[in-house]
Amino acid sequence: MILRLAVLTTVLCAAPAWSATISWDCNTESDMKEYRLERSGDAGASWGVASMIPHPQPCVSPITLQYGAYLAPGTKLFRLFAGDKAGNWSQPSNVVSLTVKPPIIGNTGGQVEQPLPPSPFVPVVNPPPVVRPGKLAGFQVSNIGSTSAKVTVPLPAGTGADIRLSLDPIAWGGATSLSCASAGGVLTCLLENLLPNRVYALQGVYYFGVMNQGAIYGDLSDVVTFTTAPFVPSPTSPPPPDEPDDAVTVADALDTAAMRCKQAKSCSGKTFANFLLEELKKVKP
């Protein structure tokens, strides 16, 4: 639980010098257990536990403590913590100071300010603010084909970028990180093996350091979409016409002319020549 800060409202010095009245507002949280009063005599350089005070029931403000331990002359600082039944403690309250003046007739009783148990409180040291890269912007998609495209994005000096792609709609955790190359402050990603006529989505993030090894990331970019071109089959040359099975060669023409001449009743050289001329006309060039 988060404890509400207790606040010291008054610190009054009464006579004699080692008696003080301290009061604060009661913490109204239901699981309150106690308060821890701490004191410092060295301007807050060190603190000690001055008193443990049970949380009163009922909770009525103000809570008043008569602090009767001897206080040596000088400036004393007080602060208060509120603790619950689970052992959780609040941050310290505001600090109030008390100036103890030396007694007029001196310390006739030989009183000594007793040392206090050290405070268990450990201040939280705020780490320096983390410098994050800016939000990635400036996607440019070009050379969009049916299965490929080109993506460019500005790449500020000292940053890396994780660019991811998926079919639209994109889900960062399930998208594919692209392999890109940088040159001249521009990151270029060549997209291949895309599906034709589909809507794709891109998203990216700048980072400082080494990705997946403690890198510091900026904000995710806005989603950018593009549509691949429809598939267009490439033109092909028509197949050559089939050769007829009965294609005639010169040798076929000679054989046929000789056979016709043999079948004729008479076959002179002129007759054979006529037969051969007719058959040669059937030969394909």
Tell me about this structure:
The protein has 285 residues and is mainly β. It is 9% helix and 33% strand. It contains two helices and 16 strands. A hairpin with an 8-residue loop joins strand 10 and strand 11 (176-177). It is rod-shaped and about 175 Å long. Mean pLDDT is 85; it is low at 1-5 and 12-17.
Strand and helix layout:
Blueprint: E1 8-14, E2 19-24, E3 32-40, E4 48-54, E5 63-67, E6 74-84, E7 96-100, E8 140-142, E9 149-154, E10 160-167, E11 176-177, E12 180-183, E13 186-191, E14 199-208, E15 216-217, E16 224-227, H1 250-263, H2 269-280
Antiparallel strand pairs: 1-2, 2-5, 3-4, 3-6, 6-7, 8-9, 9-13, 10-11, 10-14, 12-13, 14-15, 14-16
Radius of gyration: 50 Å
Q: What is the distance, rounded to the nearest whole angstrom, between the alpha carbons of the first and last residues?
A: 102 Å
The major sheet is characterized as: 5 strands, antiparallel
Q: Would you count the extended β strands for me?
A: 16
Strand content: 25-35%
SSE order, as H and E?
A: EEEEEEEEEEEEEEEEHH
